[in-house]
């Protein structure tokens, strides 16, 4: 008979031993984690039994001195209450779910995202939320069409004011493209394009968001072609084919200030090359 039920001894590659704890619940074998000694593993096992079989605890009963980590705590309670085992710290509600980063930090998502976040672990760094997807760190805001450079309150907003409510109905994208802002010009709604050179330079005002985004690309190209050393982000226009894009690109006007700046760059580059020769 095992002295510590739910615990088995295992060995690392260097030969050192450790102890793995696990529990079987509803025919599902669930790992509880690895521990330095058998007693710690057994405490995790006993705590898990109280959670799923005795239903002694709720989500918010967790304290730091519990034998289980909080992530496993959430997984087990969700399995107990909702009958679905999910390997990430998710707790299901009627029409949405909670994803816990810690006991005090959690986010709300639509059930449409359950499969994705059930298989992609969310990481939080500097207030930004990422998942690892195909070996890359992907900002979860990209699922809403929000770019990495977007600013909350300016480029997108949370309708109910709750920045942890990530349900689609609560996120409103204001600006889809870099350097493009909805505005009022001469009393009429429009889209304004600006580019950062030495401060923000106005590119122009345009009737559509798409035209403003293409004008931004044109301004960036003009500056780079005249020797401005900066990697400007490119606006990708999904709803314009190559012919439409080229037509708009050549017809859209950009401000005189941008053209003058580019011309001065070109002149300086020409003089510099002339002196070299």
TrEMBL record:
GO terms for molecular function: DNA binding; DNA-binding transcription factor activity. It comes from the Bacteria. InterPro entries: AP2/ERF_dom_sf (IPR036955), DNA-bd_dom_sf (IPR016177). This is AP2 domain-containing protein.
